[in-house]
Amino acid sequence: MPFVVTSEKQADLAHDISQKLKLPLLQAKTIRFADSEMRVHFDDAHFDDTHLDDEQNMAKDHAIIVHSTSFPVHDNVMWLLLCCHALKQKGVKFITAVIPYFGYGRQDKNADGSLGAAHLVAQVLEAAGVSQIITVELHEPEIINYFSIPVRNINLSGFIANFLKDKCGDGACTLISPDHGAADWASAIAAQIDAPTMIFQKERYAVNQTRIVASKGTCETKHAVIVDDIVDTGSTIINVAQELQQMHSACAISAFAVHPVLSANAADCLQGSVFHKVWVTNTIQLNAEQHFQKLEIVDVSMEIVNVLKGIL
What angle do CA 297, 164, 304 make, to 5 degrees? Predict the structure, then answer.
């Protein structure tokens, strides 16, 4: 029988997935040493051939690790590698890594065009024993080509379209792309709900610092929704929202971002912004400091479950 593995960093999503699939959930044990090294291990009883028959014996089957490599990125990447290593040591033959948010996903290439850090992450995941990967809305889908194992990148455009249709109705909101990079994605969502679109152009003048330099289109609806795959510091979507409010003061502005990285004081900045609502998904499990009143978390566990059903 396949089984789901998780850490405390992604326990909520892993629990939902295991419940929907009716699979056992196993939480890995993590020891953290004074110098920040980690040891990931499992109780021997879970993998003891003498206590389990062949059908139940986890050591001969399929482990599904649910773990995002979000902040702290290096700890979470290393935890995933150590978890794979520990499972292999227990005799697990096949490992599916469900990585809802793929850390280093924005580093596909360096400025000179050479391979970025994502290429190295792909290599070490394979070296650790990952058999296949399921992820959600890769920032740069080309990263899939860095792997020699199967990678399934879940596209949420249809999911988001249905969500916004329920919230706003067909054609009742304008979909806002905060930059040209998200324009095609925003247009794909908008097309499914007959919504107009508006595109902003940003300029990056420092790491995690942007400013708005141009826009295309107008907001002709009472509600505007800025859509993006990642909200990190929040500066880009906040700048877009402020610019949009100056142009269309009567428009209620919300945001939908798939991955709530929410670095530094992003939660405070978003709460103090002009946003009516900030919708994010549960690809990253947030801590208490990252929650704020305007935030609403949307569950995407069923999207992952549907993909897993196809491979189990």
Answer: 55
Tokens of 56: 């139940």
- What is the per-residue DSSP string for 130-152? --EEEEES-SSGGGGGG-SS-EE
Question: Rounded to an integer, what distance in angstroms lies between the CA atom of residue 54 and that of residue 206?
Answer: 57
- State the amino acid at position 75 in one-letter form: D
Exactly one of 20, 22, 202, 216 is catalytic; which is it? 202
CA 167 to chain centre: 22
Please provide the DSSP assignment of 64-100 as one string. EEE----SSHHHHHHHHHHHHHHHHHTT--EEEEEES
> Between these two residues, 125 and 217, which has the higher pLDDT value?
125
Please give the domain boundaries of the chain with CATH numbers for all domains. 3-154 (3.40.50.2020), 157-299 (3.40.50.2020)
User: Which residues 6+ apart lie within 8 Å of 239 measured at CB?
Assistant: 202, 210, 211, 212
Contacts of 137 (CB under 8 A, 6+ apart): 153, 154, 155, 156, 229, 258, 259, 283
Distance, CA of 70 to CA of 259 (rounded, Å): 9
Q: Helices 73-89 and 117-127: crossing angle, nearest 10°?
A: 20
Q: Which token pair is 78?
A: 């290393």
CA distances for 2 relative to 35, 132, 149, 222, angstroms: 35, 14, 19, 48
Identify the three-state secondary structure at position 260: strand
Q: Catalytic site residue 20?
A: no
pLDDT in tens, 75-99: 999 999 999 999 999 999 999 999 9
CA distance 32 to 38: 5
Alpha helical stretches, state H, the chain: 11-21, 73-89, 117-127, 157-168, 183-192, 235-247, 266-271, 301-309
| 109-124 residue pLDDT tens | 999 999 999 999 999 9
